[in-house]
Amino acid sequence: xxxxxxxxxxxxxxxxxxxxxxxxxxxxxxxxxxxxxxxxxxxxxxxxxxxxxxxxxxxxxxxxxxxxxxxxxxxxxxxxxxxxxxxxxxxxxxxxxxxxxxxxxxxxxxxxxxxxxxxxxxxxxxxxxxxxxxxxxxxxxxxxxxxxxxxxxxxxxxxxxxxxxxxxxxxxxxxxxxxxxxxxxxxxxxxxxxxxxxxxxxxxxxxxxxxxxxxxxxxxxxxxxxxxxxxxxxxxxxxxxxxxxxxxxxxxxxxxxxxxxxxxxxxxxxxxxxxxxxxxxxxxxxxxxxxxxxxxxxxxxxxxxxxxxxxxxxxxxxxxxxxxxxxxxxxxxxxxxxxxxxxxxxxxxxxxxxxxxxxxxxxxxxxxxxxxxxxxxxxxxxxxxxxxxxxxxxxxxxxxxxxxxxxxxxxxxxxxxxxxxxxxxxxxxxxxxxxxxxxxxxxxxxxxxxxxxxxxxxxxxxxxxxxxxxxxxxxxxxxxxxx
Length: 483
What we know:
The protein has helices spanning 9-19, 27-37, 55-62, 83-99, 113-123, 125-133, 137-164, 168-181, 191-201, 224-235, 255-266, 272-276, 290-295, 297-301, 313-325, 331-337, 350-355, 357-369, 374-382, 392-402, 460-482; strands at 44-48, 68-73, 208-213, 248-253, 285-286, 416-421, 426-436, 439-444. The protein is α/β, with parallel strands linked by helices.
């Protein structure tokens, strides 16, 4: 539902409430993920998607299905912990989740006093006998001393006896028991672990207990692999069932980002696939809801307020669509800008704006979407070397980017301008025509390689980054001029 923008605080709040209901359709991804989840033997799942694309929202929605009993934990703060402590924090987070659920069977074991008295007498006979005879006069007190001394000698004798006897089975069993009780050990299986396992297994039949380890994208890059290795050591062994009794464990991250961090840390020659494949049973699930997000771009943009008309959004819409398709902007940036007010940069530099109004509006808005950080948007654009075949609308948008490729001639009219870039092996001719006040037309020829051969595709994002950098330099130049 859309409302006319009115400068009334109550109306603005109402508009914000309505637009906050903008939803992205997840039905197609829900069906695809359900198929992936139900593959036989698919017990370890790596759920991948770019940061801010809506992974947590999707999983929260998906696991509202009553056939699942999800446990969400976030290891963001684990990076300040030692390796041996991380497993204890995992158990803490799981126990907190268990306490929040109302379908868990918490057991309390009780034993009869008669039975417990028998065991106590058996285990403490000599100590009890010594205490009793103390009260039988002088003879009793003397006898209690004798019993106490005999008890000490009994203990010493057992130690002496053990030095001459060997029990391979007992030795091996003690070693295994001690290792299972050691905190942080990869074979750790202490009382709390056993308790968690029993509680998870008490979940009613028909509900799959699933552990979701979310927010791996947010972990300090210096610690991400250390924490992943802890998960690997405890969750990736060939148990008949999971260590804590979960039927499936889902790791949520951006696989491409993890790959880049891995290669930066260990070098591009180190086999990443050999490292990462222990975190999934079949193959990573690549969450991709970009088509649905693109359908709602204008709905999000339309919530952003500006003091005059919104025609400038047309070119911005086209570029934003391309940025989504190539993973250069995420859904979170749109959500963060929802219902905000875009204050257009103060234009003392009217002469530059009048020379390229559509171009400046488009780039100003793109900068706004990236927090007015030229470095952030240009670094993102330069990370993609894709050669793109432009569709009609995209080619129309590219015309307004061309005007800024040559920063010394952006204001030239009726002149054939040639732009060449040796690093990109790119060349294009274009003419800028001024039709009416504050309205220009850019006519471009076919893009070429430097040798004059026609190009079918162009390095669009690299060229857009150049245009943005030139635009920022030009506007700074005019701002300084008018100060």
